[in-house]
Structures are given as C-alpha cells and as structure tokens.
Fold this protein.
Amino acid sequence: MSLSTIDKAFVKAFAQTPDVIAAAPGRVNLIGEHIDYSDGYVLPFAIADRTYAALRKRPDRLVRIASVQQRKLIVTVNLDDINPKLKGHWERYVLGVIWAMGINQGVNIMIDGHVPLGAGLSSSAALECSVATGLNDLFSLGFDLETLARLTQKAENDYVGVPCGIMDQSVSLMAKTGSALLLDCRDLSVRHVVFDVASSGLELLIIDTQAHHSLTDGGYAERRASCDSVVAKLGIRSMRELTLEKLETSKDEITETEFIRARHAVSEIARVIDAVAALEAKNFIELGALLNASHTSLRDDYDVSCPELNAAVNASLSAGALGARMVGGGFGGSAIALIKASHTQEVINAIEIEFKRNSFKAPRFFTSLPSQGAEIIQRGL
Ligand code: ADP
Ligand code: MG
C-alpha cells in the first residue's frame, strides 16, 4: 500500500507530518437485501476504493478537520463543544466518530476519499471507519473490530442522524481480500466466505443509476412496519423464525401485502445461505440465479425497485450477465451484475443504450474485486 493514492501535498499542508494514516473501503452487498432489520443474513464485500484519514495529535483540545473532496471548508472545533446538536455538514461524520469514541485530546484529521459519494457504495461508512481506525491506533485505545463497528454505527445513527444498520461499518472494518463477509444480523457473528470471481474470469459490475426517487423514506418505513406487523400477528420474534410453509398456513392471519413482504424476507434469508453454498462450490451460475431471484423478489414482493434499476438489471441480463439485482434500499441507487470480465464493455454499452432509450440520466459504472477492510497503512509520512 503506497501513499501515492492519497493527496500528499494536501496532507503535508494540512496535517504536516501525520502520526498515522488509516484507510477504510466502501462496500457492495452481494445478497441479503432489506433483511438486516429482520434478523437475517447479509453478504457484503469491501470494494477496492477507500477513504484515507491522516491524523496528527495536537497539544491542545482542538479538532481540525479537512477533506480533499471538500476543500472549501476546514473545520475547527473544541472537543468540549462536540455534541449531536452542533450544526454542520460532512464533518459531522468525523465529529460523530470522535464523540462516539470519547476522544479526549486534540487532533488534526485530513480526509481523502476515493469512494464515490452518494452512489450507494457507503462512502459514509468508509469515512467513519477510516477515522475510527486512525484514532484507535493514534491514541492506543485498543477497541476490537466489533466494538469499532458499533461505535461508528452509533456515530452515524445518533450523531449524524441516519438510521443505518450495522452492515456497512462491519464490512468496512472486517472485510478480507478475496472474500465476502457473511454477517448474521441477529447476533453480529461473522464468517469470511471466499468470493474468488477473478480466477473464474468473472467480475462484478456496479451500476449507479443516478436515480433517487423521493418515495425512499416513507417506503422504507412502510416495509419495516409490514414486517413488524407480521411478527406481532404471528407471535414470533423475527422473520428468521418463519418458513415459507408456516407463512403459507398463516395466510389468513395477515393482510395480502404483509404476506408478500414476509415472503420476500423469508426467501431472501434462504437465498443468502444458498449463495454462501454456491460461492463455496464456486458455482457462479447458481450465484447468478440467486441474484436474479433476489431482484425479482425485491421488485415484485417487496416493491422497492424502480424503472431505472429494472432497466439496469434487464439490460445486463440481455447482454449476457450471469445474474443481476438492485442493491441497497431501492427506489434508485445502484444495481450489480455478475459478468464475464471479458464482457465488461459490452454490458456497459447495453445499459447505456437502454438508459438513453428511456431518457434516463446517464448511469455511472464501477467494478471491483473483493478487497481488504480497514487498516493502518502508514505511521509517519
Ligand atoms: P453513501 O454512504 O452511499 O456514499 P451517504 O449519503 O450515506 O452516501 O454519505 C455521503 C456523505 O458522506 C457525503 O455527502 C459527505 O457528507 C460524507 N462524505 C463521504 N466521503 C467524504 C469525503 N471524502 N469527504 C467529505 N465528506 C465525505
Ligand atoms: Mg451511507
């Protein structure tokens, strides 16, 4: 890992000689969507794009923060003034981490993020986890990765005010090169599952549709409420306890909408387990079929897709992808397609043509192999 990937001139100008430089990646969720809040499993992996945080101790109680991506604003705050009510912009992600970790000494923090912002690749978790990893090392705090995941989630939930689950921070902190991370959302236990697409000549294409439909907030709450209602009516603790058979026999006790929402949840949990088996068997045809089934379920039963996501998925499949699905909350954001590495440009062209035909905003494309989670990349400059 070399420093050439981070903006050296800016680091020097701002943090002089940093004491430590940490990096943390963005992520993509391979499968397991809208299931974290139902005690399900998720199977994300870290992408190669990372956010870098260069830190230097200060002798006083000031925190100074700057970002290469936000050069206009260099923030200076006294540690004693950091609390969730303090107004601000992007720096709130950093201050939230300082707050959640209980940092008690001044520090300069310089950020250089290479994870595209707002593309559904979790640049926010990459930012939080790079800062948390740097602070943990700089002040010899000794927090383990699970604790860091909880603290950075707390920063985003309680300081920034975004109600995200634990997936993004967990994978940004814990991921290993060449593996996806099976995370059990019921007890937060993890398992690394080898996801070796490259040696099979495959690649995962990430398609940012650039669509953001306003339904998102209400839509998300409505889906969660449906799941809560099913759980209450059937007297179970979570969707994890439900099977398709049991759901079928309980059909009369719930509404039709609740039935199809629950069907997504139950079938998606099963698909994650099947996807792990497919990865372990290096059966990428099966993995592709599971991605397709996940998309169909999210589109028809959970009803969280949108025309842009469907177009990205359909065009990918028509151009020969093994499988494709929407990722994230839905109503916009990104899709993924499992493709032959030699076909990348063909698939991209097919999607671009389909988007033009529908007069959609031009999509953005990223590819990434499963990469390493957060790490200290350098001490000193
Ligand atoms: P996502 O996590 O999907 O990229 P979010 O809206 O959750 O989208 O997080 C994006 C926000 O995180 C940005 O608007 C900005 O406030 C903050 N952010 C992420 N990376 C950086 C960075 N390198 N520099 C400054 N702010 C950043
Ligand atoms: Mg985010």
